[in-house]
Amino acid sequence: MDDQQDPLPDMIRFGWEEWVSLPDLGLPALRAKVDTGARTSALHAFDIETFGPATSPKVRFTVHPVPGREDLVIPCSARIVDRRNVTSSNGETESRYVIASTIRVGEESWRIEMTLTDRSTMASRMLLGREALKDHITIVATDRFQQPKLSYDVYSTARVRQAAPNRSLRVAVLSREDNYSTRRMVEEGEARGHTVEVIDTTRCYMAINALSPEVHYDGKRLPRYDAVIPRIGATVTAYGTAVIRQFETIGTFCVNGSEGISASRDKLYAHQLMARHKIGMPNTAFAASPKDTQSLMRLVGTAPMIVKLLESTQGKGVVLAETKKAAESVIDAFRGLKANFLVQDFVKEAAGEDIRCLVIGGKVIAAMKRTGADGDFRSNLHRGGSAKVVRITKEERDAAVRAARAFKLNLAGVDLLRSDTGAKVLEVNSSPGLEGIETATKKNIAEMLYEHIEAKVRPAPVRSIKSMNEE
């Protein structure tokens, strides 16, 4: 019996121009010129920039997929597979990065290599060279569009967001500390194929001008980041938010913006902001004059009460005054130090416990109950408190989400007290730690944060595109 042979594939007819898609790059529709005279395929790209480790370098670039539509920009990234010198038809030689991607034409798809170059003057955003053409493709040099036609209209719908893959991102973590949270941001980002760099906020400096605002670091201009994760310490809030504003000016996606960070750090303004949004909180009062001490205490209620420095963090500068006399003494002491402070009602029924709700992208994704150490009314984990997972009520969930939204924070730690009259928001933290809540809930919080970042930095749909699908 004769050996069985695989049947020859059906021949595929290509015209000299065809519609293609590059799903790996989030490009659902491109017109490609088929040129058997060229060995290597080429893709239109600009703002080409390398990143990642030397052992596995990547390239990021942007594409205008529709000729004449400069406002439609699709960001892409891929692993570099080679770098080649390519000589164009006019004799000019250019060194280009080479990437690999899946190409789809009609019902067929296969892997090809392509170089990245500026084709902004060309009608076709892509050139298909002979290396990309399969053996069973035949070229009809006198005609176009032998394969199914696509439409540029896909870029004006939400489908372009769904089609865009989770591309490799370049992410900066603004942090001065090598702590658990910073390390998790780096580990999880790199595990997802991103390049994550830790930047010391105080070593950044800025070129402030209208045409090309820049952020510099250690003598060099920082590269273009897809996203910035601020981990701004309380002691450098003013300078840290200035750096964030500079990234916002450049157009970088910042997980938490400068406005939200500033509001969360100013405890007086934070309470005023929550009051404006009708978010439940303990009765709070503030005054500048020592003559107002008695009136200030009457506004809050009866002892015991909390006296809290406006600059307090991690439970430091927070005092429980169990009697009226003790409250007067603490207030006088703080005023003697010329310190700004708040006076708050002490929620006795909370019994030294609070609930930390972690909000990402407008959703509570984890919650834990924190209990203070023996003899300490403060439940901060940094002060020896303990934590365990807790189930929260719909009211508590809604309060946490509303608080994060009021501060315009994509990532927030919202601290609640359970009182007889419902959930009371104590504080909104714009740089919540991950160690306690990941340990207590066994959830991968860093992973959820990156999922939010990846969704945010995908290209957004643009206004409707007039038909540019030439026949």
Structure description:
The protein is α+β, with helices and mostly antiparallel strands and 471 residues long. Among the domains are: 12-163, Acid Proteases (Cathepsin D, subunit A, domain 1), CATH 2.40.70; 170-264, 3-Layer(aba) Sandwich (Rossmann fold); 283-346, 2-Layer Sandwich (Dna Ligase, domain 1), CATH 3.30.1490.20. Helix content is 22%, strand content 34%. Strand 14 and strand 15 form a beta hairpin.
Low-confidence stretches: 461-471
> What Rg do the Cα atoms give?
29 Å
Helical percent range?
10-25%
Summed up, the helix count is: 10
β-strand percent reads: 25-35%
Going by CATH, the homologous superfamily of the domain at 12-163 would be: Acid Proteases
InterPro entries: Asp_endopeptidase, ATP-grasp, ATP-grasp_RimK-type, ATP_grasp_subdomain_1, Peptidase_aspartic_dom_sf, Rimk_N, Rp_bS6_RimK/Lys_biosynth_LsyX
Domain ATP-grasp: 271-454
Protein name: Probable alpha-L-glutamate ligase
GO molecular function, one term: ribosomal S6-glutamic acid ligase activity
Helix and strand layout, with pairings?
Elements: E1 12-15, E2 17-22, E3 27-34, E4 41-44, E5 46-51, E6 58-63, E7 74-87, E8 93-105, E9 108-117, E10 126-128, E11 137-140, H1 159-163, E12 170-174, H2 180-191, E13 195-199, E14 204-207, E15 214-217, E16 220-221, E17 227-230, H3 237-250, E18 253-254, H4 258-265, H5 267-276, E19 284-285, H6 293-300, E20 305-309, E21 318-321, H7 324-336, E22 341-345, E23 353-360, E24 363-371, E25 386-389, H8 394-406, E26 411-419, E27 422-429, H9 435-441, H10 445-456
Parallel strand pairs: 1-11, 3-10, 4-9, 12-13, 12-17, 17-18
Antiparallel strand pairs: 2-3, 4-10, 5-6, 6-7, 7-8, 8-9, 14-15, 15-16, 19-22, 20-21, 20-22, 23-24, 23-26, 24-25, 26-27
